[in-house]
Amino acid sequence: MNILVTGGAGYIGSHTCVALIEAGHTVIVVDNLCNSKADTIDRVKEITNKEVIFYKIDVTDEAKVDKVFLNHDIDGIIHFAGLKAVGESVEKPLDYYYNNLVGTMILSKLCQKYNVNKFVFSSSATVYGNNTVPFVETMELLPTTNPYGETKAMSERILTDVVKANPDFSVSLLRYFNPVGAHKSGLIGEAPNGIPNNLMPYVAQVAKGKLEKLRVFGNDYPTVDGTGVRDYIHVMDIAEGHVAAIERLNEGVNIFNLGTGQGTSVLQLVKAFEEANDIKISYEIVERRLGDIAECYADASKAKRELGWQARRNIIDMCRDAWRFEKNYEG
Ligand code: NAD
Ligand code: UFG
User: Is the pLDDT of residue 24 over 90?
Assistant: First the structure.
């Protein structure tokens, strides 16, 4: 298939381009590079030894995106392009609502215009809010606590309504848990700007000596050791989940958790990183971070049952690959 990948220069998008190309698909990337670099596309080409068509375009620029649809015979679209920093979304809500919602609306409108009937969307486990773990796709969605999460819940509703009005249009809403790690080549991975918000890149930068020590946000949660529990999933497993989702897209709205189903605490992750890489990670326990929940992990059975996909890489693989990328990365 010819697949339009928006946000394909970003962290999850670039790994998904590799998985799509390796599965025999052709990718056309649209990215405005607001949170990524063009050389990531070169690295995808280096890994796969295949061409990647790349347009530096903003998905909210309808006229320019229209030309991409016009110039290529697109079979399906995977829409990653979006802003994703939770804290920043509280400070700049309009940037988040505009970018994430207008992007989704323009792309679904152009899908109708050009008769593109397969649409895969990057949603997030954040839409489950404060439900009880494990999170199951059938759960009623609870309000999220920030504009970023709202853009994901609203995009899900927008796409669901577009499907209702256009029965030929099929959508897959993929709710990711915590993507971490990197491609095994070490050529692409997660390279956040500034000080990382997320645990794994923070730990990797402590290992590198870029940051002094990890601050563990709270050890008084009702969890195995008091620290927050998350469902970390290797980014290449997430990438392969997208290949399965677009290749096996059923009619209507398809919702899938992309997680492992396994919870790992902050201290368990630190220990796994130390073991996988033979490096000591200094840390201190500090106050809880505002807005964090105690536990977040998936019931991952639906994707296994219906897509034939399940995560194959374990927490040691995730820590080893995250470190390999960080070690090599000069950014
Ligand atoms: P990322 O920032 O690395 O990738 C997003 C890409 O989209 C970037 O390359 C950025 O330049 C591009 N982009 C943003 N706005 C754009 C616009 N208007 N037009 C064109 N390009 C634009 O983030 P990621 O971690 O790869 O996340 C990809 C998607 O998955 C996002 O929608 C994110 O919200 C979602 N998601 C991520 C996580 C996570 O933990 N990483 C979890 C759940 C969901
Ligand atoms: N943590 C620390 N110290 C840090 C960073 C994180 O102790 O420096 C802890 C957090 O308190 C949490 C766990 O590590 O218990 C994971 O935190 P992350 O920031 O890595 O991930 P979150 O689960 O908070 O958030 C992620 C994405 C969100 C998404 C959410 C649900 O960043 O965008 O998963 O999918 F909404």
Answer: yes
Q: What is the mean pLDDT of the chain?
A: 97
Q: Which amino acid is at 102?
A: V
Q: Is the pLDDT of residue 97 over 80?
A: yes
Atom number in ligand 1 closest to CA 33: 11
Q: What is the 3-state secondary structure (H, E, C) of the chain?
A: CEEEEECCCCHHHHHHHHHHHHCCCEEEEEECCCCCCCHHHHHHHHHHCCCCEEEECCCCCHHHHHHHHHHCCCCEEEECCCCCCHHHHHHCHHHHHHHHHHHHHHHHHHHHHCCCCEEEEEEEHHHHCCCCCCECCCCCCCCCCCHHHHHHHHHHHHHHHHHHHCCCCEEEEEEECEEECCCCCCCCCCCCCCCCCCHHHHHHHHHHCCCCCEEEECCCCCCCCCCCEECEEEHHHHHHHHHHHHHCCCCCEEEEEECCCCCEEHHHHHHHHHHHHCCCCCEEEECCCCCCCCEECECCHHHHHHHCCCCCCCHHHHHHHHHHHHHHCCC
> Which atom of ligand 2 lies closest to the CA of 125?
35
Dump pLDDT digits (tens) for 253-312. 999 999 999 999 999 999 999 999 999 999 999 999 998 999 999 999 999 999 999 999
- Ligand 1 center to 8 CA (angstroms): 8
The question of whether 97 is a catalytic residue gets the answer: no
Query: Rounded to two decimals, what is the model's pTM?
Result: 0.98
The full set of domain ranges for the chain reads 2-180+233-259
Domain at 2-180+233-259, CATH class: alpha beta
Q: How many CB atoms lie within 10 A of CB 250?
A: 10
Q: Which residues form the pocket of ligand 2, taking CB atoms under 6 Å from any ligand atom?
A: 84, 86, 124-126, 177-178, 197-199, 202, 214-217, 228, 230, 266, 289, 292, 296
The whole-number pLDDT of residue 192 equals 87
Separation between Cα atoms, residue 251 and residue 167, nearest integer Å: 8
